[in-house]
From TrEMBL:
<keyword id="KW-0756">Sterol biosynthesis</keyword>
<keyword id="KW-1133">Transmembrane helix</keyword>
<keyword id="KW-0444">Lipid biosynthesis</keyword>
<keyword id="KW-0443">Lipid metabolism</keyword>
<feature type="transmembrane region" description="Helical">
    <location>
        <begin position="20"/>
        <end position="40"/>
    </location>
</feature>
<feature type="transmembrane region" description="Helical">
    <location>
        <begin position="92"/>
        <end position="111"/>
    </location>
</feature>
<comment type="similarity">
    <text>Belongs to the ERG28 family.</text>
</comment>
<protein>
    <submittedName>
        <fullName>Erg28 like protein-domain-containing protein</fullName>
    </submittedName>
</protein>
<dbReference type="GO" id="GO:0016126">
    <property type="term" value="P:sterol biosynthetic process"/>
</dbReference>
<dbReference type="InterPro" id="IPR005352">
    <property type="entry name" value="Erg28"/>
</dbReference>
<keyword id="KW-0752">Steroid biosynthesis</keyword>
<keyword id="KW-0812">Transmembrane</keyword>
<keyword id="KW-0472">Membrane</keyword>
<dbReference type="GO" id="GO:0005789">
    <property type="term" value="C:endoplasmic reticulum membrane"/>
</dbReference>
<dbReference type="GO" id="GO:0030674">
    <property type="term" value="F:protein-macromolecule adaptor activity"/>
</dbReference>
<keyword id="KW-0753">Steroid metabolism</keyword>
<keyword id="KW-1207">Sterol metabolism</keyword>
Length: 143
């Protein structure tokens, strides 16, 4: 077991201090889970897009999975490199994009209803954006 714990501990020891890097990794892990489930089934995705579940197709689910996986990878890199403004900004923009997507689906396109399944990503995006804007000067050291 030490052959796994040692390298993982070494990797996580390079994270910047504070809860924000851990939060970015946590939301990345949730995103990766969401990507995997989108590749495997559309049942959870149809719950999120309950305004028009008939529009959720295997192709749209795979596309959403790929988009979510990409965003998760950006957040992982950002978590380890928050001291660089460009990585911090990229991490922040992933939440802006997510919030824009879900707000558009709720308020413009009607693909999502304002219910439990869509409130989760909504709350994560809003909380993350507020948090990242507030603590930016604590993390960013290099422009």
């Amino acid at each position: 077991m030490d052959f796994i714990v040692g390298p993982v501990t070494d990797i996580f020891s390079t994270l910047p201090v504070g809860y924000l890097p851990k939060w970015l990794l946590f939301t990345s892990a949730l995103g990766i889970f969401n990507s995997i489930q989108n590749f495997c089934t559309m049942s959870l995705t149809k719950r999120v897009y309950s305004g028009h579940p008939e529009q959720v197709t295997p192709l749209s689910a795979r596309l959403f999975a790929t988009w979510t996986w990409s965003v998760s990878m950006i957040r992982i890199y950002a978590a380890f490199h928050l001291q660089h403004r460009f990585m911090y900004d990229l991490g922040l923009w992933t939440y802006v994009i997510a919030l824009t997507h879900y707000a558009g689906e709720v308020f413009v396109f009607g693909g999502c209803k304002l219910n439990g399944p869509v409130l989760s990503p909504f709350c994560v995006a809003v909380t993350s954006l507020i948090w990242m804007i507030q603590v930016k000067d604590e993390y960013v050291k290099f422009i």
